[in-house]
Amino acid sequence: MVIMNELALLVDDYINSKGIKYNFISDKLGITRQALYQWLRKKNFSIDDANRILAVIGYKIEYEIKPLEY
């Protein structure tokens, strides 16, 4: 059993919370639903991966690097 990393879980939860079907996303990406599941479960799931998936439904992840406040 492969466990999803935190970012993939965030994307998965967001898709589910919006009621979007994986078939819809996989069709738009030109891949099978099984390939989408495998993509979400890969060890090195990245922000670029997340944004590629989320772009299908009109969303993206933004991030920022900030200095620590001591």
Q: What descriptive keywords fit this protein?
A:
70 residues, 4 helices
In short:
This protein has helices spanning 6-17, 22-29, 33-40, 47-55.
Give an overview in words.
The mean pLDDT is 92. The chain has one domain (6-55). Helix 1 runs parallel beside helix 4 (47-55). By secondary structure, the protein is mainly alpha-helical. The protein has 4 helices and no strands.
In N-to-C order, the SSE pattern is: HHHH
Strand content: under 5%
Question: What is the number of beta strands?
Answer: 0
Query: Mean of residue pLDDT?
Result: 92
Q: Low-confidence parts, pLDDT < 50 over ≥5 residues? A: none
Number of domains: 1
N-to-C CA distance: 40 Å
Q: Given the structure, what is the number of helices?
A: 4
Supply Rg: 13 Å
Largest sheet: none
Structural class: mainly alpha
Topology:
Blueprint: H1 6-17, H2 22-29, H3 33-40, H4 47-55
Helix pairs in contact: 1-4
